[in-house]
Amino acid sequence: MIRLDNLLYAVQPRATRQVVHIPPSWVDRQIGPVVVDSREVTPGSLFVALTGERTDGHLYLPDVVERGAAAALVSPAKLAALAPDWSAVARPWRLIEPSDGSALATVPPEACLFIAVDDPLCALQRAAVYHRRMFTPTVIGITGSVGKTSTKEVVAAVISQRLRTLKSQRSFNSDITLPATLLGLTADHQVAVLEMGMWAAGEIRFLAALARPHIGIVTNVGPSHLERLGSIEAIANAKAELPESLPPDGWCILNADDPRVAAMAKRTPAHVVTYGFAPHADVRAVEVISHGLYGIELTVSYQGEQHHLQTPLIGRHHAYTTLAAIAAALVVGLDWEAIAAGLRDPGERLRLRVVNGQQGVTIIDDTYNAAPLSTIAALEVLAETPGRRIAVLGEMLELGSATEEGHRQVGAAAARTADLLVAVGRQAQTVAAAARAAGMAEAQVIVCADNDAAIDRLRSLIQAGDCLLVKGSRGVQMETIVTALQG
After folding, report:
1. Is residue 269 part of a domain?
2. Looking at the chain, which terminus has fewer C-beta neighbours within 10 angstroms, N or C?
3. 10 to each of 6, 19, 43, 212, 223, how far by Cα in Å?
4. Does residue 325 sit in the same domain as residue 402?
5. Residue 335 maps to which CATH number?
6. Which residues form the Mur ligase C-terminal domain (predicted)?
């Protein structure tokens, strides 16, 4: 939430900002939360009218007004050019210049304010920078090729045991959604846990400039986004922008088991804490025991002492998620009792979830996204489940030159972990061929051209006691398979 007078000041270009004087009746008006999708507008929201590849937020302003938004950041030129249909809108609205607070004297209090800006996205980012500087939370930034959202959720769950914590919603990690999260800061927040993603070099550095993190966590470096950045080295350099952006009195938390991440210790001015299984890791997993779909328990060594912990997080790979959260908690001064409590109840469900399917089957739904590393980790979870294990694997996108090799790695892993493989989509033959080459029998490998074909085949194949893992990149919509097979 942000006060209206602060918002009007903050969205102006810094070089020409003017102090805004508004009528007393408007002084205490609070605006927020920030939304960029008109369907998510609730009473009091701040809508940002963005121009995208397929549509323009200015077209939906009538709906935004009707849904009760308090204000919207708009481009007057876009508003005039697109001319949205106002014929069915009963609620008043007014277009105002952000520097002219006196104009509010003639605006009815129930009106939606259209705040005229040069560029709605740039105005949102300016507002986020201004709002961030009003508060002094410890900001924790998290990046990595995979595991960002899971790590963010667990870090926030643990730290909130002792400190009032703001966290990014969903996977809000872009130049649009991170500023929206920052505008949710209040004086009550002691910590903010923010996910930082990237599409190109320089973007994490930009996000860090907005958020000003004191603590940075890098989970790993892998071939996700290889199609855009061109090489693993370029991806590592992009992820290293977070460690490089930390202050000298900050803390950089690095995965000791990933050589590219561990090397970032030389690129940060901050203090370094490492985590992993390596003997030299500061926060080290001595032993991990998986209980399949019932979570993991692990013994962690830190400063010569060992601590036994349990979490409902599914899969051995979540030992890394857990260790990163422990390291962050220790840096901000939490005790082991709080750490253990936070790990036992990590709050909102993470991306991997277990649902009941038709005919008495269990479905492991890990359809949010996919890369070779995360898919192999999910297959290892499948391997620990009882019953007949069926891997339903879709295409992994944005791997660039690593596309063929990445899908071959996943096919070979499926042969080690699954009883049946259902490979779906354009890379299905590559996955299937690798599984056969790794020893999977022909009868155990099924190739489907698309999701609909996979659904039809699975409906005739599944039986009580089966466990299905469904995973693929976001763009191939593997969640439709889960929906079709749910009980």
Report:
1. yes
2. C
3. 6, 10, 22, 17, 38
4. no
5. 3.40.1190.10
6. 351-474
The per-residue b/e assignment along 218-250, b for 16 or more CB within 10 angstroms, e otherwise, is bbbbbbbbbeebeeeeebbbbbbbbbbbbeeeb
128 within a domain of the structure (yes/no): no
- Nearest one of 307, 369, 315 to 334, comparing CA atoms: 307
Known binding-site residues equal: 144-150
pLDDT digits (tens, 9 = 90+) for 273-317: 999 999 999 999 999 998 888 899 999 999 999 999 999 998 888
Q: Between helices 120-132 and 203-211, what is the axis angle to 10°?
A: 50
Domain region containing 374 = 353-485
- Closest by CA to 228, choosing from 52, 404, 399, 472, is 399
Same domain, 389 and 445: yes
At 422, phi and psi to the nearest 5?
-115, 105
Question: 158 and 196 in one domain?
Answer: yes
pLDDT in tens, 112-157: 999 999 999 999 999 999 999 999 999 999 999 988 989 999 999 9
Relative to beta strand 215-218, strand 271-276 is unpaired
- Does residue 369 sit in the same domain as residue 400? yes
DSSP result, 220-235? ---STTHHHH-SHHHH
Could you tell me which residues are annotated as the binding site for ATP? Answer: 144-150
Residue 420 belongs to some domain of the structure: yes
Sorted by sequence, the CB contacts under 8 Å of residue 126 that are 6+ apart come out as: 10, 11, 12, 13, 14
User: What CATH number does the domain containing 13 carry?
Assistant: 3.40.1390.10
Q: Longest C-alpha distance within the chain, in Å?
A: 77
Bridge pairing between strands 296-302 and 283-290: antiparallel
Instruction: Please return the burial class of 170, using the count of CB atoms within 10 Å of its CB with bins 0-12, 13-18 and 19+.
Output: exposed
Long-range contacts of 374-379 (CB under 8 A, 24+ apart): 374/146, 374/147, 374/317, 374/471, 375/410, 375/413, 375/471, 376/409, 376/410, 376/413, 377/315, 377/316, 377/317, 378/315, 378/352, 378/469, 378/471, 379/410, 379/413, 379/414, 379/416, 379/417, 379/418, 379/469
AA letter at 45: S
pLDDT for the residue 350: 60
Burial of 103 (0-12, 13-18, 19+ CB in 10 A): middle
Bridge partners for 271 per DSSP: 251
Is the separation of the CB atoms in 191 and 163 below 8 Å? Answer: yes
Q: Distance between CA atoms of 99 and 116, rounded to whole angstroms?
A: 10
